[in-house]
Design goal:
alpha/beta; about 30% helix; seven-stranded mixed sheet; about 25% strand
């Protein structure tokens, strides 16, 4: 210790006040710990201020514009200015809610930059003030930031990350999007619904490659139906500003030239984990070659007093993952055994219609060595979807033919996001098809589609078995 240095003693220090960090803080405070939560900006993180909340808020507005019902004639218009005003109001109210929770749970909230000075000390910079804290436990929840694509070399007012598109002042007449992930899909769907002409470009071989192919194919069909263009497998992508617009040139999968113009280009090119300047080497926290903090299933790092959660750990950048891991980290800091694993992490995409997925895709199940059987039920056969005048979409069940174990649930259509909770619970409980078929399902209801898909899979298995027997 430097002579005269004042060290403040803290119990549990959490760096990062996004979903993982603030959920960890609240859980630990309820366990009786004295919690200090520090963030360089405002609580809520990117999720609240520019990611999850704004994107879903626009998706809700886009969905309302496309609603219909028997006997009703609905006329609606969209105002970006009004939406931005109401978006700011929603974010402000949610942020106030966080401050209330912090006050209620006696959580100390500090705005500043934190970095580890040693295995048990943190330096905190608050403007011109610098303090040194000792801690009993720490949780790192600093999240991630948008990564710019390799072809974007110079700053342009016409190029933004997809998160920044939710702050534009007007609806762009023509929107170009670079990306193949769920964030790209949500932006494409919402902006098309509010009036933009949308063209998605990507160097990936397919759009939404992580989805089950049956679902991804239906998304592409719906996009084509809505007038959203998707160009995949592009190479030699270049950007050029031309007057008040931007031009993109590329070579398509056939080697032919592609040239498109847009008012704006939004990109989703992966995420960069916010680990810089944290001084993790001083704390002896192991970072992998892929630049994420290596943690155990209890979210504990190589320094047993330090835990980590969210985007800075292995796996997809999803708020649902950060929230779960934040709670697990807090529990273990407080002496309560808790674990987190990513096998049954649900993925939801707020497109029109929405998409939801959990568990193994058909391809993943086949590669894993299961005797795969699938069942697909189209929502046009679902009475409740028809009542809502939303017959587009389907649900797909993936199961093991030998053990009858349910392996994956995938859906696109009205009710998909609500339906996926049932699939997630079934997978967590190691359910078999009989467990899924036996319970009653409300009629009419979206949940009937799961039962039909499972029964169709069973019928297909029996038919194949009989064919083999006859041979």
């Amino acid at each position: 210790m430097v002579v005269g240095e004042l060290v403040y003693e803290k119990d549990l220090v959490i760096i990062g006040a996004g979903p993982g960090g603030y959920q960890a803080a609240i859980r630990a405070a309820k366990h009786g710990r004295d919690v200090t939560l520090i963030d360089r900006s405002r609580p809520g993180g990117e999720c609240l201020h520019s990611g999850c909340i704004p994107s879903k808020l626009l998706a809700v507005s886009a969905g309302k514009l496309n609603e219909s019902a028997p006997g009703l004639t609905i006329s609606a218009s969209f105002s970006m200015k009004q939406w931005n005003d109401e978006k700011r109001s929603v974010i402000t109210n949610l942020e106030k809610g966080l401050y209330s929770l912090f006050k209620k749970n006696k959580i100390e909230l500090i705005q500043g930059n934190a970095s580890f000075l040693s295995e048990e000390r943190i330096g905190v910079e608050q403007g011109e003030k610098f303090e040194v804290w000792s801690f009993n436990h720490a949780i790192i929840a600093t999240g991630s930031s948008a990564n710019a694509p390799s072809f974007y070399e110079e700053h342009s007012e016409f190029v933004r990350s997809v998160e920044e598109l939710y702050s534009v002042e007007g609806v762009p007449e023509t929107l170009l999007l670079y990306g193949a992930d769920y964030m790209t899909a949500e932006v494409a769907s919402s902006f098309r619904a509010i009036g933009s002409s949308v063209h998605v470009i990507t160097d990936e071989e397919s759009f939404l490659p992580d989805l089950d192919e049956t679902i991804a194919k239906e998304v592409r069909r719906q996009f084509k139906k809505q007038g959203i263009r998707v160009s995949t497998g592009l190479t030699d992508i270049k950007l050029v500003e031309e007057g008040s617009s931007i031009k993109v040139t590329a070579q398509d999968a056939k080697g032919e030239g592609l040239q498109v113009f847009g008012d704006l280009l939004g990109y989703s090119a992966g995420r960069v984990r916010n680990l810089e300047a944290l001084g993790l080497e001083n704390a002896r926290v192991k970072v992998t070659e892929d630049n994420f903090i290596d943690i155990s299933e209890s979210c504990q790092s190589s320094n047993h007093s330090i835990y980590a959660c969210g985007d800075i750990t292995d796996g997809p950048s999803l708020a649902v993952k950060a929230i779960k891991q934040g709670k697990v980290a807090a529990d273990n800091c407080c002496g309560f055994s808790s674990v987190s694993e990513l096998n049954f992490l649900p993925i939801v995409i707020h497109t029109l219609p929405p998409v939801a997925s959990v568990g193994l895709t058909e391809k993943e199940a086949d590669v894993a060595g299961y005797h795969v059987s699938t069942g697909v039920s189209h929502m046009r056969a679902n009475g409740f979807a028809t009542l809502h005048a939303q017959p587009d979409g389907l649900v797909k069940v993936v199961r093991d033919e030998e053990t009858h174990l349910l392996l994956g649930f995938h859906a696109i259509g009205k009710g998909a996001i609500e339906l996926i909770e049932k699939g997630t619970l079934a997978l967590e409980m190691v359910a078999r098809d009989e467990d899924f078929i036996y319970p009653y399902a409300p009629h009419p209801g979206f949940g009937e589609a799961w039962i039909e898909a499972t029964e169709l899979s069973l019928e297909a298995s029996k038919t194949e078995f009989n064919k083999q027997k006859q041979r």
